[in-house]
Amino acid sequence: MSEVHAARRSRLRARCSAAGSTALVVSRPANVRYLVGAAPADAVLLVGRLGDDVLLSHWEAADAIADPRPADAEGMRTEVLHGESDPATAAVAMAMKAGADAVAVEEHHLTVSRHRALAAGAPGVRLTDLGRAVEDQRLVKDEDEISSLRIAAEITDRALGELLESILVGRTERHLALELERRLVDHGADGPAFPTSVATGTHSGVAGHRPTDRRVEEGDFLSVCLGARFRGYRCRIGRTFVIGSSPADWQIELYDLVFSAQRAARESLEPGTEYRAVDRAARTVLEAAGHGSALGPATGHGVGLEIGEDPRLSPAAMGRLGPCVPVTVEPGVHLPGRGGVRIDDTLVVRSPADGGPELLTITTKELLAL
Amino acid sequence: MSEVHAARRSRLRARCSAAGSTALVVSRPANVRYLVGAAPADAVLLVGRLGDDVLLSHWEAADAIADPRPADAEGMRTEVLHGESDPATAAVAMAMKAGADAVAVEEHHLTVSRHRALAAGAPGVRLTDLGRAVEDQRLVKDEDEISSLRIAAEITDRALGELLESILVGRTERHLALELERRLVDHGADGPAFPTSVATGTHSGVAGHRPTDRRVEEGDFLSVCLGARFRGYRCRIGRTFVIGSSPADWQIELYDLVFSAQRAARESLEPGTEYRAVDRAARTVLEAAGHGSALGPATGHGVGLEIGEDPRLSPAAMGRLGPCVPVTVEPGVHLPGRGGVRIDDTLVVRSPADGGPELLTITTKELLAL
Description:
2 copies of one chain form a homodimer.
Chain A: H1 2-18, E1 23-26, H2 29-36, E2 44-47, E3 54-57, E4 77-80, H3 87-97, E5 102-105, H4 112-121, E6 126-129, H5 133-139, H6 143-164, H7 173-186, E7 191-192, E8 197-200, E9 221-226, E10 228-230, E11 233-234, E12 237-242, H8 249-267, H9 275-288, E13 300-302, E14 309-313, E15 326-329, E16 332-335, E17 339-342, E18 345-348, E19 358-359
Parallel strand pairs in A: 1-5, 3-4, 5-6
Antiparallel strand pairs in A: 1-2, 2-3, 7-10, 8-9, 9-12, 10-11, 13-14, 15-18, 16-17, 18-19
Domain Creatinase N-terminal (chains A, B): 8-140
Protein name (chains A, B): Proline dipeptidase
């Protein structure tokens, strides 16, 4: 894996040297992970102009949130800091010593205070903005990354499938969510990609609903959103079921509607499609049925090392899909006081010649009565 | 609860108006939660000079991480935003309309890019730094907060106690960690306060060790760190056990040493004690035994709405403990290739007249052979 990371750093270097920057300091954790592999939570990467890259960290273990092990960054220099110093400040100082006169930092990640301390610690160095250069590079995934996402989706489908075989009536949202997360780990996930959402009855269809002690009852809609994290890569599935043998008419109608919207968005996924056209495909269907306002601000988003990354599929998003970009398609409608439906998939954009969008989350989207 | 939050906002307003600021924009999630109660993840609080406070949010549900329900902020105005606008920008604009000419923002939370967009969106408004005003106010806890921490600790002790009654040999770190987290929720926790750490054999004693598939074996040290989150408040316990009937001599020695260091730090907790004196109390014991370098950069830290908050108990920390400040005391030693010991408690600083430090995590610290 270390060559993959070295190649990514070379691409970044090539791209940013062209823009005149001398040294780059990458501090955003998902960006660091992309460029070096698993790294401590506080790690900062100095990308030198000559390939003299250094990973700086305390591997500060005291906070239990951090991964205390050094990065699996064979073949690159790592520097373990002591005391309370900021690895970003240390990185800028190191760049200075190496003769850099400009250092590009991630202004969308560094706080105003941290940036000020950085500048104060490196008088004479010109700090510039690296911007979203690493995020831009992360947008299109290589086959290694897609393969990690594919495994994450397989694990997720399996965990969900097992849940569907068990008795659901009478169990709480909270316990169902915990069981799903345990099953993700049982099947090899590093952990959940995001907090598992289980919503039943009037809660169903609420995006990002936090599980409560409400129990599943006969006649409920039950909506479940979960995803595995595998080698750092995160996917997402969402499904809605009906509890009991005979769904009500309004449940069947609402389900069919959300399903049509979701299918329209999935079918629009093609290299060259505008981000907002994907959103529009789903939104038009829901608006025509009078449920446009129930839809959230976006229909989906990119996934990878983060569960919500570029692109964003929303009415105002600018840009066009490229091949090998994994995205979610996740429209939902919630009717206050009644409940609702969510259907979320993770897919990879592929050209029609390559078979069209690759569906990673393959659990059925028929309305199952459980 | 809403009066508690209103009183906190009044204190903040009183304190910051004295410094001349006109309107305050609080964006750091733990600070927002402290001032309004549970709130959506993207919520930003505008604290007006006249008590005209507003909570702004998308309750942006699309990312599943957010809590999509509006704050339990009865009696205060809430504003639900549409589209993709930044609630902080909207808050500054609202302060302008209300006639503010200066707005204090959290420069230690806002990124450089976000701050720049904020300034661009509000020409003519002077942006100043609110600094850590809310964090400073959060340092000393009221009895409501301490009572939430006490319940969190009770839940944590119970979950750990149950684990100790079960068979451990042959089970993986990963499964033990998941079981502990399930038990936390079973006993009423909102969730774990931080990722549960279970470390066995050569992993034991590593701070923040992420559970692996290593199984517990006869003769191992087993160290476990966990904590419950209850009404947002987070505590922490760490214990080390020995597996099998007869600990080795080196295990008994190392355990006694870490225990002495931990006790020395606990006994130093008193209003007026310097933060670094608490660290020194533990560090001196470990250094005398030649294990000073095995200790991390801090011996403990404050807890509350965050698992690691002010104060920090480290050699360079400036300041003195006050009453009603909850802290952890968590020294540990890890011997590479062999294993180690961690003993973590959560305590509340109290004056000797009030009975001295209040131990919240009461699970025994004898070396148990399981």
